[in-house]
Write a structure and sequence with these properties.
Helix content is about 30%, strand content about 35%. With about 100 residues, it is of the alpha+beta class. It has one domain. The strands form two sheets. The protein has a three-stranded antiparallel beta sheet.
């Protein structure tokens, strides 16, 4: 594995989704691996690993999770002409891979 600095992500997820992934890791690889789980360091999407110089091992199955996507839209109030920025959030499914499922390129 690379240093923490090189692998760190900007994950800002919830404890609930992290708990779901931690449970999946415990079911697959045991409680010891689940205790090593850190969503900012060792569990990313396929593209996330690829950007960090790793590739997912052949035949590996990812873990399903969800993320929130925020989209800002500028809206104009028809009565006052005032401009406001509204933030819309939507759920998006993601597939994550844990560090045991990848190899360095």
């Amino acid at each position: 594995m690379q240093s923490n600095q090189e692998l760190t992500s900007n994950w800002q997820g919830s404890l609930a989704t992290a708990g779901m992934i931690r449970k999946e890791i415990a079911d697959r690889w045991g409680q010891e691996e689940a205790e090593k789980y850190d969503p900012t360091y060792n569990c990313f999407t396929f593209q996330g690993w690829k950007q960090r110089g790793y590739m997912v091992k052949g035949g590996e199955h990812g873990m399903r999770s969800i993320t929130f996507i925020a989209r800002e839209v500028e809206e104009v109030d028809e009565k006052t002409g005032e401009r406001k920025i509204k933030v819309y959030r939507s759920l998006r499914p993601v597939t994550l891979f844990y560090q045991t499922q990848v190899v360095r390129n």
